[in-house]
Amino acid sequence: MFLRPPCIALLVMSLTVWCHAQDETASKTKQKQQLKVAWQIDEGLKAPESAYLDPVTGVIFLSQIGEGGGKGKDGDGWISKISVDGKMIENKWVTGLNAPKGVRSYKGTLYVSDIDRIVVIDIAKSQITKVVEIPDAQFLNDLATGADGTVYVSDMAASRVYQMKDGQVSVFAEGPELEHPNGLLVDGDSLVTGGWGTGFNPEDFSTKTLGRLKKVNLRTKEITVVTPEPVAHLDGIEVDGRGGYIVTDWRNGKLFRISKKGRAKLLMSFPRGAADHAYLIDKGLIILPEMLEGTLTAFEYTPGQNKKSSDK
């Protein structure tokens, strides 16, 4: 069959579009398969938010918000206990929380952020021993503990970080330069903060710009920037064992590695809701709660997978 020039051009254009679509699909598929799944829990979870490996017990503690959403003061949130090989030890280990998010421990005590309060749990007794209300808190999110037992908790809506030391709560740092911090991590002499972004809208949690990873010196409170350019709506932060960090973007469903020089590399994409993960360096496992999907997945990963270029 003879095709006139316009028909040939149309055919070539159609083939080009089709090939591009196939390449794009293949690229997305490859990206989805970049990190191998070691195990997954997809039953019995309701809005899992933060996964944390307690170094003493060797147990993963998982906060679950429950039915009422991140602001719901409804008492239906809880903490779960999970083994590092993905077995549910006890789903509703400690109940009666509202919308628990950040989880960290210090010498047998588990601390949990819960909207406008810090919940203190005795791990051995499996019970809440104290609740510390923070009257001015707007939306407490992630939580970190220092080597001296100081507890730090981010107030994302207020662009503030509180500290609790010897049972007393005070403001550790605040202001627009924190870029509405969500994720927190104590790393050496610094509190690493993950900004949600600037131009924060409390109604829908949108921002005008993405957030950056920063460090606040625990003694001087001097702020230094890790990522010069805005990178994500930062949520979970964990050290990668090579001077960099593994971070998540909750709003855009991204998992990144940020090198020690501040360069961000996308590791994997997810639906919205990639929350506060744990990274088990010795096992090479990223334990990721997908809050809106209701799953907890362990992915195999070591920074060496990304070649040496990722350290630049």
Write up this protein.
With 312 residues, the chain is mainly beta. It has one domain: Neuraminidase (6 Propeller). The chain is built from 1 helix and 24 strands. The protein has a 4-stranded antiparallel beta sheet with strand order 1-24-23-22, with no helix packed on it. Strands 2-3-4-5 form a 4-stranded antiparallel beta sheet, with no helix packed on it. Strand 18 and strand 19 form a beta hairpin. It is globular and about 40 Å long.
Name the CATH superfamily assignment: TolB, C-terminal domain
Number of strands: 24
Give the neighbour order of strands across the main sheet.
1-24-23-22
Shape designation: globular
| Uncertain stretches of 5 or more adjacent residues | 1-33
Provide the CATH top-level class. Answer: Mainly Beta
Annotated CATH architecture: 6 Propeller
- Please provide the ordered H/E string of secondary-structure elements: HEEEEEEEEEEEEEEEEEEEEEEEE
For the largest beta-sheet, the strand count, sense and barrel status come to:
4 strands, antiparallel
CATH topology: Neuraminidase
Query: What distance lies between the first and last C-alpha atoms, to the nearest angstrom?
Result: 56 Å
Could you say which structural class the secondary elements and strand pairing correspond to? Answer: mainly beta
Mean pLDDT: 90
DSSP helical segment count: 1
Radius of gyration: 21 Å
